[in-house]
Amino acid sequence: MSDRLNLEPTQWLARLPLFHDIGPQALERLAESCRVRRFERTEFVFRTGEPCDSFHVVLSGQVKLFVLSPAGNEKVIELVGPGASFAEALMFLGRPCVVNAQCLADTTLLSVQRQAVIDELQSDSGFALRMLAGLSRRLHGLVSDVQAYALQNGVQRVIGYLLRDQAMDDERVDDAVTVSLPVSKATLASRLSLTPEYFSRVLRELEDARLIEVDRRDIRIPDVKRLAAYTG
């Protein structure tokens, strides 16, 4: 990771799917607007109500996007790790931020200024299409979340999260796998629209059924297919 942090902004931008196939001159123009910013754990990148004049790429660390209910309850919208970006849609709204962004670890961000992106959109239709595709993928993910919350029970949501990177047609699907939770169980519970207590009960249920083995944040899955078939 230390080597990656030493990359120039143009090299980081070139690694993002959003900026694939963009010429070196366009990358240079975008890079001129970039700032590398470092945040400590628990520090906010932005808060609800603040202006949003850039989007951000996580170089290291992790960022939590969340909203607060009037009663002060937290709902995690997204967890953003290294190589991923956030706040693109917020940037285009031209309005104050509607979510909070807080670092879950010491984090380094590459911030890309709004005006530089708009200039490239106006001059490169290919870039505009890629930006639309990226925003569409983000929207598709949010719609999938809503469907899961409406149609799946808590057990199915937890299993779906644990198996999110497992392809059921993979030749190695019968092998045991270990999933390391990237955040606390309470934060992950909020991401899945569950209470921390219910999330813990689900893990205990899956453990009692010998479908998983929990060791702090590491969860070993002895049989992926058995876990996938479990309905609770």
Give a summary of the structure in a few sentences.
The protein has 232 residues and is α+β, with helices and mostly antiparallel strands. The protein has 10 helices and 11 strands. The strands form 3 sheets. The chain has a 4-stranded antiparallel sheet with strand order 1-8-3-6. A 4-stranded antiparallel sheet has the order 2-7-4-5. It has a 3-stranded antiparallel sheet with strand order 9-11-10, with helices on one face.
Describe the structure.
With 232 residues, the chain is of the alpha+beta class. It folds into two domains: 2-151, Jelly Rolls (Sandwich), CATH 2.60.120; 154-229, Orthogonal Bundle (Arc Repressor Mutant, subunit A). Helices cover 42% and strands 22% of the residues. The protein is built from ten helices and eleven strands. The chain has helices spanning 2-5, 9-15, 24-32, 88-93, 114-123, 125-151, 154-162, 185-191, 196-208, 224-229, and strands at residues 35-39, 44-46, 54-60, 63-68, 74-80, 85-86, 100-103, 107-113, 177-180, 213-215, 218-221. The protein has a four-stranded antiparallel sheet. A four-stranded antiparallel sheet has the order 2-7-4-5. α5 crosses α6 (125-151). The radius of gyration is 20 Å and the shape is elongated. The mean pLDDT is 85.
